[in-house]
Design a protein that fits this description.
The structure is a homodimer. By secondary structure, chain A is mainly α. The first copy, chain A, is about 70% helix and about 0% strand. Chain A has helices at about 15-30, 35-45, 50-55, 60-85, 90-105, 115-125, 135-155, 160-180, 180-190, 195-215. Chain A starts with 14 loop residues before the first helix and ends in an 18-residue tail after the last helix. The structure holds a DNA duplex.
Chain lengths: ~230, ~230
Amino acid sequence: MGRRPKLLPDSNDDTRQRLILAAGELFAEKGFGDTSVRDIARMAGANVAAVNYHFTSKENLYLEVVRFVLGQMTAVRRTAMADIVPAALTQPQAVEALRVLIDREIRSYVSSDLPRWYARLILRCIMSKSPVLDPIMEQAFRPNRQALMSLLKAACPHLSDEETRLWAYSITGQIVFYNFAREPILLLAREKEYTEKFLRSVVAHITRVTFSGLGLDKHPVRRPKKQAGKKS
Amino acid sequence: MGRRPKLLPDSNDDTRQRLILAAGELFAEKGFGDTSVRDIARMAGANVAAVNYHFTSKENLYLEVVRFVLGQMTAVRRTAMADIVPAALTQPQAVEALRVLIDREIRSYVSSDLPRWYARLILRCIMSKSPVLDPIMEQAFRPNRQALMSLLKAACPHLSDEETRLWAYSITGQIVFYNFAREPILLLAREKEYTEKFLRSVVAHITRVTFSGLGLDKHPVRRPKKQAGKKS
DNA sequence: GACTTAAACAAACATTTGTTTTAAAATAGA
DNA sequence: TCTATTTTAAAACAAATGTTTGTTTAAGTC
């Protein structure tokens, strides 16, 4: 099929896309060095040479994969935030948005708009100081932190910048941990997969910790009997 | 020199140990697949064949490295806990031990009894579901969680098992995040290395969040004007 | 000193790696 | 149809990989 002007890198429908998806999954699971182009080609149902034909090199394919994932995540975050956060943000709205944000993030570990390996790939990249760290900083880490800090500031105007940043890291750290340490946690819980019940208790806990620490709860430290907050 | 009975694996003083240390550092930094035995040998100042001579294979060297690191970490944790936690634990002692624990863990990111790459290597292993996950579970993840949960239970007898576990993950998550996401955090902070000042504020924050959430602080939620909390 | 053995080393090994080449197949436009 | 271009496929490539070999060095034993 010789007609696509190759202007839009995403206009490819077939092999190229399959390669990106296969490579992404393998990179996320085993890392760059432990994944061979032959594995990628096999999983994508393509020829070995296809990698170099479409991406010129394995390393370039890696960059393309990260680019692709970042694009997807950015798009989803945009719509999600637009979905959660009203245009003009009142303080109670910010509090509610914060609650929904925590809930959504944790719940994405069992079901999400995006494939599970997206986040794992980014986690991998973040830990290794690879050249892809820059785009990840600009398109994922920084905007995520920024969005969270904005919500926190709107919910708690009395917070200083430093306190806000520390809170953002505390919330993110608690949440990410369940993704990062998924295997050990599941092993100790003797589960094969995160259960809805388990994640619900995690959400309730992190929410309680956060809101209590921020002074946003009505009943200071007392823990709710049933967790009756639903929303969405 | 043919005289060492090879009974004690740690009795080796020279090449074998250097190989383990070099390999560990490289594995921790770049991962298994991105590290070649030649790199390892070069860094250890040894011959390429030394790896196979002493460890029979690269993969076996990897196992040996993890074993070694786990041993070191276990030993340090034992003495550290014995140092912190009194034999018979009163509630106020548990609270204080908890405080010291958080402080020590965070501060280990800038200076520690153990080389920095130990924890990074374990973090790497935890994220990839490698065969070394089992020993890591038994010698690191589970005992660490257990120790933390014991302290929490002693400090807050009213906590249920599930609440205790959730708190352990919350504390661990917050702490580990600063190791896991070290690069991005430092980039956004425009620092080359964690500063004492920065880590002090992190310790203060995590401690405040934890103690406030657990109801262990004297002044419930009120935040200090200047962050005058000192301790230690 | 003869003998043994652990260790180190350089060289070569076989395999796997990413990549290139070459040609055939597929597709679109004339 | 013919032609041009893109895509696929098999094979081969050079480089790098993990590993093995044969030899040498040094230390301990008789």
